[in-house]
C-alpha cells in the first residue's frame, strides 16, 4: 500500500451545513478518527502518522470538524458544531455503524455520539481528555497555556503550549512549530481558538453549562454501551491521568491502557505501542476477553 499523502487522501462531502472535508485511506470496515482542539489542529495533523498501520485493517476516515479552518464553518461555536457533524458525515457517506477513535476533544465527541446514537458506534477508543479532574487542579497546565495563546497569540506562547503536549520535547521540531503557527494564525483558526479557550469564552461556557441543568458528559458515562478502550499518557499535562478514573469505573465495558513517558499525544509520542494496543482491541472479536 502506498504511503498516504495529504493530496491523495483528501476528500470533500457536501452537506446541508456546508462542506465537510476529510481524509480517506485503506480498505475494510469503516474507522472514524476525530481530532482534538488547539491552535493549528487538524485531523491530518493528529492521525497522519497512524494511517499506514490502521489502514491495513480498516477504511480510515479522518474527519475535519467545522470551525477549525479546514471544513466549512457552520456559524456555531466550534465545540457545538463538532458533535452534530458526526451523524451528518456518516449519513452523507451512507454509513450506519462505525468504530471510532477520538483524540481529546474528539474523544469527548465520540463518547457523546456513543451515548446519544448507540446504534451507530461499534467500538470506541479515546486518547486522553475524557473524564474529570479528581486530584489534579483543573484546568490543567496545557489548557492554561492554550488560554494564554488564545488571548495573545505569539510564537513563543505556541511553543510553550506545544511543549506541554508531550513528554519528549524533541518531538516539537521547527517544522512542526512552523506548520502549527501557519495554521493557528489563520483568521478562522484564531477565531476558533478564542471562541473555545479565551478567558471570557471559558467563563461563559461554564455559566451556560451550570444554567442548563444538563449533566456533564462525565456524569453519564454509564450510558455508554460501546466496547471502550481508554488510552492515556502517564505524563499528560493537559488532561492529567486522574481524569481517567471516573470513565474507567463507570463505563460498563471498558479497558484502560496507560503509556509511560508519554504526554497528551499518545498516538504520536508512543506511536507503535499505541497502534498495537488499539489494533489488538479493535480487531478482537466482540465480547472476547
Which features would summarize this protein structure in a list?
289 residues, eight-stranded mixed β-sheet, 8 strands, 17% strand, AB_hydrolase_sf
Question: What does this 3D model show about the protein?
Answer:
The protein is of the alpha/beta class. It has a domain at 6-139 and 216-283: 3-Layer(aba) Sandwich (Rossmann fold), CATH 3.40.50. It is 42% helix and 17% strand. The chain contains 13 helices and eight strands. It has helices at residues 6-9, 43-47, 51-54, 78-93, 105-116, 141-151, 155-164, 174-184, 187-197, 199-212, 245-250, 266-269, 271-283; strands at 10-15, 18-25, 30-34, 59-63, 98-103, 121-127, 227-233, 254-259. The chain has an eight-stranded mixed sheet with strand order 1-2-4-3-5-6-7-8, with helices on both faces. The mean pLDDT is 93.
At a glance:
This protein is of the alpha/beta class and 289 residues long. The chain has 13 helices and eight strands. It has a domain at 6-139 and 216-283: Rossmann fold (3-Layer(aba) Sandwich), CATH 3.40.50.
